[in-house]
Structures are given as structure tokens and as C-alpha cells.
């Protein structure tokens, strides 16, 4: 580390050296390389100033720069008697550069440092970098880089630091990494890496730091790590690896920071660390360690953090722990430790958490938090209080509910006065807090590496929240490790536990602050109900409210809700120490009838049982009388079936009163009508909070009827994703059946591409490409990622809406089919649109998610060509876009498919990839079509498509043509099939077209003019 800093300092000094005879210059090739690098990165350098002069914007600071900001290009001008300069370092940190990883770095042959940390770069790591013979440091931390790690990097014999943390890299660690001859740091935390650690890594005897947490590795921690005798820091947290921790770790006597957590596998004993004398941080959390705590742990006098929580440790706490005089944090939470509570634990200065153990407590203060010691549930056998450390606590009454505004003040959320209690007590590393009513919380852990003198356990939101009851999401409680909420004095029975979340610490812009990933687990009553829960992904973005419901059986008058960080997710974006569980609010409500308390009489006594019974009978009689009158007037009857259909649906939307919808649409003013669809009219509305909505009104004459309406509510309400149209809620009052959607400013993709000319949008190729990716992501979520696997059945350009930023969102789930074998109640009737339906679905009614893939392929062709799939040339002649594409493919002229409105302003490689993806998606054989997740990877450039068909007029070195099935043969095969397969299912159009929201009317003359 010192040598590297000294080298950079020396080079910086050389930059300032000026030859009095003649000025040093930068070779033209390197100057041109910098121009290309800047263009690729999205960095606007001032080339009117010499890059090696330190002037212009080559070595300047920004106003109010973020943490870690650096903007430095360093040259060494000592070559050829101080007449020639060479670029030796490029450090552009925390600038949120929007470009890609530049391959052009190879044109700087003297480059030693590449530091592009904390930007917004995408693309892959160029294998060509492996030819850069003087590179010492590569740091790409905190970007959007995908693809595999190129093994060619191991060819750089001078490389000491390889920092690739917090990206989206995939694949295995290359076998070639064993060839590194000078490497000291390999940091790969928070990627998507898989496979076992290659045995070739055993040769890395110079390694000093190795981090691989938050990945998806397999296999065990290899014993060859015993060869890493120079290692100082080892991080293996939430890596996917299994135990045991190998005995070879004993040879790592230079270890200073050891963090291993959340291992899979069987039980194992404590690793032999008795010769490791320099440890400052020792974390062996959730590693399935059994047996007693070794005495040598108490002799580690340099320790600052000791975390052995959530193992199976037994026996007593060693008395020589008293010698850990400099240790600030000790976590022994969640073990089976026994024996008396050591006296040293009550000394000032340390944060100690002994919660959830079997200790024999001699604490007589009836306090779960003496000083900085957390004793919550630290001992067993107590039967007099709600928990062993609260002996004197008694329940004055029993409760049927529990509501907490986590980290915030007391709030009322509705007109009924539903109140969430305040929870503003500052947390801490080993903290227990008891409320004034019937709940408490216990927090364990401190945020590591944040370099702050005091951790933050409550976060205040400064942005607006979308969703119901936004006041519940203005604050949140955080924990770096484990956060447990404990409700007591509850009446036994079944309860619904509702947990409210909103990601309020990340951003939703195009900066590195938006790249954080918060992942944690949730337990209710000791059972894990959410694994690898990601608030942002589940809610479809940041600052969006989401809740999850769970059923809990309360048998001992208590409910326990625990949130646990299992070592996954980023820990350094936007800043170091941003990770761990976060929760906004909790509500627990009885699932059984809550009895009404006796009503006091005037003299202070309760009413008699007879009086209460009389009142109940009178009330029931009145209710029956009113219902009878309503039924006689025809207000009750079969129309209520919609309400019955809604029962049992786990709706994730709000319910809007009719008066609110009328106010928003000015009582359904015809001036606010934006179309007429199959369901009936659609209105634009404005809510009182300024939210613009689209209201779909179910017509009594609707051919779709109530079944599709109910189905659509159920399907959409369960789905939350940035590329699915958001259903704000519904309104069901009397004969009014309404759906309330978010309003999409730019209408449908169909209108934008090939609608009437006055409505068309000028969509350049980058926008079209992002639309393709967005639709693919939405379908991948429906097919593979959502809890309910859903087939849309009617993907087409009119069912893709565009918001104000031209982000695509899939609409129309009235035809959605749950992709679950047990759901036999869902109709399998063929429903879709001519020209978009997969052959197996159209002819045999055979439906899988590959039907959507086929339709998506057709939409891709429409986006590339700017033409509708069923363009009409004349009254007698029509053609399908897919037929035309295959004809051009056969002629080697695929580029003729491109929309002429794009002229030549498009990326030819991306266009060719997109067309080939479309042709693969429209394969006549469903099983040969790719999955939507594979499509996303290909369109984003993370994977290569198999069977590439490039245009003969385009020369791309990266493309290697391969033969694929002729679509002409496929078409002929389909014709042959149609002669022997009877059509026993009806052809229909979409039952819920997007024209319900944004209708499009185009006559034949319009199409004749366009073609």
C-alpha cells in the first residue's frame, strides 16, 4: 500500500516538472485514445488543454463532491529526457459516469492505474486489458458491469489490486487466476458469481486480501487457503459456500480481519485460530459451530469486534474474556450458552449482546438492558413474566392488535382513528427497548467499515412515497445484523402480521447511488417467511411502499418478528455501512372476532347480560329490516357476485370510494373521456394529491363481463414491477365497477410507432432498444420472478404503454393465466390477437410462457421496423411483418427491415442482435424459443445469441454466422399441420385491449398511405 502511494506521489511530482528547453508532449496516439476513452465513459474532457498539464478539467474537484470523489489523469513526463509524456493513471471516482467500460484503455501502454469506482458504467470487462503489461491497479467497484471475469487479466504480471465489488458479474472465477504472480487484493463481493473456488487459487501466495461475499458459489471452503500465509483480510459472508471452516486456516497467522458467515452444511467445531494474534475483527456468525468457546479467544487482546452469534455454542462464557479490554463489541446472540452471567459483562465501555441464550441470570434489577448489555431472552425457566429479564412485568390487559410506526412518531392512518404507536427510541449495537404498551424491540450489531463515530439506526426519508398511507414510510428502523420486534399480552389465536417496507436509502436516478442492493431474511414466530428479500425489487423501485401479510399462531400470548442480515447485498453503496434489515411499520391484527367490552351504566356498573342480549336482538332486527327493504327495491341481488369473487383475493391495491373517483373525473365528464374500449369508457382523472389517473369503467354491455374484471384485479394487484402498468386500486359500489390505473403520458407503443401521424413519437434507436429491454424484463418477471407465474397471452404493441420518460410498461392482464398446475379453475380458451399468437396456442390451445415469447418476438420486429405486424398494402393484399423479415433474412438483407425514419443513426450491432432475437423468439417450435430472462441477457449484451444471422451488408467481427431453421420451412410446416389439426377452440381478439385505456382508431386509408 505504501509503495503504491509513494509511486503515485512520485509520478505526480514528475507531472509538475517542466523542461526549460522544450515542453514535454503526449504522443498523438495516446491523445486520441483519451478522446475515445472519454467518449466511451461519457466523460467530457477539455482537449483544448494539455491532459498532462493538470489544467482544464483534467485534475479538478467538483463543487460539493460526494464522498470518495476523484478526478485525476496523471502523466509521467520523464521519458526521452523529459520530452515525452505517457498517461500512467486514470482515476475517475464517484462521478456516476453513464457510459461503458472502455476497451480503448489498451492504447495507453504505460497505464498503471485504472480506477473507475462508483460510477454508472455498464458493459463487460474487456479481455484485451490482459495485454496491458504495466497495470498495477484495476478498480471497477460500484458499477453495472456484467458478463464473466476475463481470465486474460491473469496475464498482467504486475497487477496487485483487482477490485470488482458491487457489480453484476457472472460465471466462475477463472482458472487462470492462479497465474497471478504479484496479486495482493482480489475483491469480488456482491456479484452473481457461481461455481466452486478453483484449486489453482492455491498458488496465490502473495495474496493479502480476499473478499467473495454475497455471491452464489457452491462447494466448501477449500483447505488450500492454508497456502495464503500472507493473508490479512478474509471475507466470506453470504457466499453460498458450505462449511466447515478448514483447519488450514491455522496457518494464516497474519490475519487481521476475518469475516465468515452464513455457511451451509453440517455442524463443525471452532476453527483453530490460537496462533492468530493480530485479529482486530473476528466474525464467525451462523457457521453451524458447536462446542464451547475456546479459551484462546479471550487471549486475543487486539480484538475490537467479536461476533459468534447464531451458532450452536454451549457451555459457559470463559472468564478470561475479561482480558478483552480493548474490545468494543461482543455478540454472542442466539446460542445455547449456559452458566452464570459473568460479572465483567456489566462493566462500562463495551456493547455486549447475550440475548437468546440459556444463561442463569442473577440480575435482580428486572432490566433487560443494564448499561450496554442486552439480556433479552438470555435465560430460560422464568414463568412469572413475559420474558426472563422482566420478572416484575405483568399484563394489565390483553390485546387483539399491535401497530408500530418503526423509527417514527405516532400517526393516524384513516378516519377510523387507526393509530400506529411511535417508535423513536435511538437504537444501538446491543439494544433492548420496552414500549409503554405491549411491545419491545431488540437490536444486535454495529455497522462495519462506515468510518462513522456513531451509527445510525433510524433513517428519515426526504422523498415522497407512492402508495397508501405514505406517513408510515417517512421513517424506518435499521439494523446491521438482527432486529427483533416482540409483541406480548396478546389474546391467543391466529393473527395476520403485516410488515410495511419502502426502500428510502437508495436513489432512482442514473447514478451509483441507485445501484445498492439491500437483501435480508424475515422470520415470524421463528419460521423464515421471506428469504433474500429485496424491498426495491419487490416494490418495483425505491420510495415505493409495499407490504407483506403472514399468518401467525399466538399460543403463549406473544408474537416475535425477526429481521436478519445473512451477509447478502451491497454494503458500500451509496456509502460504506448501508446494508441490513429495514422496516417502516408493523401491524398485527386478530383473525378472529374481537368481543365488545361491556358498556358501563350511569352508576358506573356494567349492563346486565339480559340488557346486552336485548340490544343485540334489536340491532339484528333493524339490520334485517333494512336489508329486506334494500332487497325489495332491487338494490341487492346477483350484482353482488363481483364482491364474492373478490373475496379471498390477496389484493395489493387500494379501494377508492366512488365519490373520490367522481371528483377526480368531474363526475365522469365527457371532456375527460380518453377512449372507449371493450370494457367501456376510460376517463382521465386528477386526485386531490395531484396524482393523474386513468379510470377504466366496466360497461354493463361489456362482452368481457365480470369474470375478466375480477381476474384482472387479482392478477395486477399481485404484481409490482417497473415495467408493468401499476394498478392504484379499484372501486366497487352498486353497479359501478372501476379500475384505477397510473396514467401513462405517452400512450401506447403502437400509437407512438405507427399511429396517426400527429400522435407518432420520434423514437431514436437507443430509446427503442431500451423499450425492447424493458418489455423483456417485464415478461421475465411475469414468467420467472413473481410469486405467481403468469402467462399474459396477448402481448402486442397496443398493450405496451409508455410513461413520460418513455419507459415501457406492460398492460392488460385480463387474459393472464396463472402458470400453476393446481389452478384448474382458470379457463384455457384460446384468446389473443391475429398475427401475434404462437402456432401451438392458436391451433391446439396449448399454452405455456413460450406463447408470450413468440408474441414478444413479433413486437421486436415492429419496434425495429416501425411497422405494424398486419400492415395493409391494398384492399386485397396484406402481409405479416414476420413473413417479410424471413424473406429479407433469406436474401441476406435484414437491414432493410430497419425503420427508414432512423436513417443511419443506430447501432448496427444492436439492431442485428435484436432482429435475431426476434427470429429466435418466433420459432415455430415452442421449446426452441429462449426464456425471457435469456432474452434480457442477450439484449443487454451479457450473453451471446446462439445461431446468429447477420445481414450480409454488415461487417461485424464479433458476429459468427450460424445456420438456423428456415422460417419458410416453418411456415410450410404450419400449413401442413393446419390440414390435420381441427380447430376446436374459438379465435378471439383481446378481451381487454389497451384501447380500454388509450384507444387507437386507424382506417384502411391510413395504412395505404403509410405503405
Automatic annotation (TrEMBL):
<dbReference type="GO" id="GO:0016020">
    <property type="term" value="C:membrane"/>
</dbReference>
<dbReference type="InterPro" id="IPR008271">
    <property type="entry name" value="Ser/Thr_kinase_AS"/>
</dbReference>
<keyword id="KW-0067">ATP-binding</keyword>
<keyword id="KW-0597">Phosphoprotein</keyword>
<protein>
    <recommendedName>
        <fullName>non-specific serine/threonine protein kinase</fullName>
        <ecNumber>2.7.11.1</ecNumber>
    </recommendedName>
</protein>
<keyword id="KW-0723">Serine/threonine-protein kinase</keyword>
<dbReference type="Pfam" id="PF00560">
    <property type="entry name" value="LRR_1"/>
</dbReference>
<dbReference type="GO" id="GO:0004674">
    <property type="term" value="F:protein serine/threonine kinase activity"/>
</dbReference>
<dbReference type="GO" id="GO:0005524">
    <property type="term" value="F:ATP binding"/>
</dbReference>
<dbReference type="InterPro" id="IPR051824">
    <property type="entry name" value="LRR_Rcpt-Like_S/T_Kinase"/>
</dbReference>
<dbReference type="InterPro" id="IPR011009">
    <property type="entry name" value="Kinase-like_dom_sf"/>
</dbReference>
<keyword id="KW-0325">Glycoprotein</keyword>
<keyword id="KW-0808">Transferase</keyword>
<dbReference type="InterPro" id="IPR000719">
    <property type="entry name" value="Prot_kinase_dom"/>
</dbReference>
<feature type="signal peptide">
    <location>
        <begin position="1"/>
        <end position="23"/>
    </location>
</feature>
<keyword id="KW-0547">Nucleotide-binding</keyword>
<dbReference type="InterPro" id="IPR001245">
    <property type="entry name" value="Ser-Thr/Tyr_kinase_cat_dom"/>
</dbReference>
<keyword id="KW-0472">Membrane</keyword>
<dbReference type="InterPro" id="IPR021720">
    <property type="entry name" value="Malectin_dom"/>
</dbReference>
<feature type="domain" description="Protein kinase">
    <location>
        <begin position="668"/>
        <end position="919"/>
    </location>
</feature>
<keyword id="KW-0433">Leucine-rich repeat</keyword>
<keyword id="KW-0812">Transmembrane</keyword>
<keyword id="KW-0732">Signal</keyword>
<dbReference type="InterPro" id="IPR001611">
    <property type="entry name" value="Leu-rich_rpt"/>
</dbReference>
<dbReference type="Pfam" id="PF13855">
    <property type="entry name" value="LRR_8"/>
</dbReference>
<feature type="transmembrane region" description="Helical">
    <location>
        <begin position="611"/>
        <end position="632"/>
    </location>
</feature>
<keyword id="KW-0677">Repeat</keyword>
<keyword id="KW-0675">Receptor</keyword>
<dbReference type="Pfam" id="PF07714">
    <property type="entry name" value="PK_Tyr_Ser-Thr"/>
</dbReference>
<keyword id="KW-0418">Kinase</keyword>
<dbReference type="InterPro" id="IPR032675">
    <property type="entry name" value="LRR_dom_sf"/>
</dbReference>
<dbReference type="Pfam" id="PF11721">
    <property type="entry name" value="Malectin"/>
</dbReference>
<keyword id="KW-1133">Transmembrane helix</keyword>
